[in-house]
TrEMBL record:
Residue sites binding GTP per the record: 17-24, 63-67, 117-120
Protein family: Belongs to the TRAFAC class translation factor GTPase superfamily. Classic translation factor GTPase family. IF-2 subfamily.
Keyword presence, Protein biosynthesis: yes
Location of this fragment in the whole protein: 400 to 689 of 909
Major place of residence: cytoplasm
Protein name as annotated: Translation initiation factor IF-2
G-domain: region residues: 11-159
Top-level taxon of the source organism: Bacteria
Organism annotation: Rhizobium mesoamericanum STM3625
Gene designation per UniProt: infB
GO molecular function terms attached to this record: GTP binding; GTPase activity; translation initiation factor activity
Length: 290
């Protein structure tokens, strides 16, 4: 219906890999930020979403936790994305959640780019990473395969520009498009109840443009968008395709992974959310009655 209105959009890139292999550090280095310092025990426990600009081109990043407990978050991260960055620490090589991440990316059908991290360490062995990846059917370019691989260091900043170039190259091949002129829809990345702000849902707009004042349904909750807040805590007037944004004003907290969409009026929003709540209640009742 809207084929003619589709224009290029930024790639959505999910960072995956084993715990402590340096996913958040890499993103911090790319963004010139310091998220790791604020994490309890240095362990990522939620999904973070950020947008950066390289040579005038935007890239949306989704950070995921590497800890074994967060399988569902990794799976969801792989589903909302165009490209998966597999971070493997060169001193630790391929580990259980590295393999799990490969499987999530393959299941979601998204191309992988390998970032061999921590190459600044004296014990780094990037070649071992490449040969171990071969055993899991990830054939990197430098060994004659098709998967782009880049040796990086979040600590020294080595080759971060090359990693961004590899992402933009892959994105070009994928020829990603969306229509900014239609009603917005997308996916909930995470949501929580904030003491001061009420329900805060981080969403990724996947098509259309989301604006304050619009009415959305997300999973089985709804609301009029009171404000949109970007990854720099700034209020914004609109969120175009591939932009991660916090939505304030929902009646409750949707589930991570829920789809959201703009609807025409409050009555319609209430109708859809009540229908979904009833479905969920019926399902739960059916489970209890065995
Ligand atoms: P989870 O999200 O908990 O899975 O961890 P993560 O993959 O985000 O790793 P994180 O960024 O928390 O980094 C783990 C540790 O590795 C920290 O102590 C970082 O300082 C260190 N680190 C990350 N990248 C590098 C690197 O390139 N070189 C060196 N030497 N240390 C690094
Ligand atoms: Na960590
Ligand atoms: Mg992390």
């Amino acid at each position: 219906d809207d084929e003619g209105d589709r224009v290029s959009r930024p790639p959505v890139v999910t960072i995956m890999g084993h715990v402590d292999h340096g996913k958040t550090s890499l993103l911090d280095a790319i963004r010139h930020a310091n998220v790791v310092a604020g994490e309890a025990g240095g362990i990522t426990q939620h999904i973070g979403a950020y947008q950066v600009e390289q040579n005038g081109q935007k890239i949306t990043f989704i950070d995921t936790p590497g800890h074994a407990a967060f399988t569902a978050m990794r799976a969801r991260g792989a589903q909302a994305t165009d490209i998966a960055i597999l971070v493997v620490a060169a001193d630790d090589s391929v580990m259980p959640q590295t393999i799990e991440s490969i499987n999530h990316a393959k299941a979601a059908g998204v191309p992988i780019i390998v970032a061999i991290n921590k190459v600044d360490k004296p014990t780094a062995d990037p070649q071992k990473v490449r040969t171990q990846l071969l055993q899991h059917e990830v054939f990197v370019e430098s060994m004659g395969g098709e998967v782009l691989d880049v040796e990086v260091s979040a600590k020294t900043g080595k080759n971060l520009d090359k990693l961004l170039e590899a992402i933009l190259l892959q994105a070009e091949i994928l020829d990603l498009k969306a229509n900014p002129n239609r009603t917005a829809e997308g996916t909930v990345i995470e949501a929580q109840l904030d003491r001061g702000r009420g329900s805060v849902a981080t969403v990724l707009v996947q098509n259309g443009t989301l604006k304050p004042g619009q009415i959305i349904v997300a999973g089985d909750v709804w609301g009029r968008v009171r404000a949109l807040v970007n990854d720099k805590s700034e209020h914004v007037k609109e969120a175009p395709p591939a932009m991660p944004v916090e939505v304030l004003g929902l009646s409750g907290t949707p589930q991570a992974g829920d789809k959201f969409a703009v609807v025409e009026n409050e009555g319609r929003a209430r109708e859809i959310s009540e229908y979904r709540q009833r479905l969920a209640r019926d399902k739960a009742a059916a489970r209890h009655s065995g």
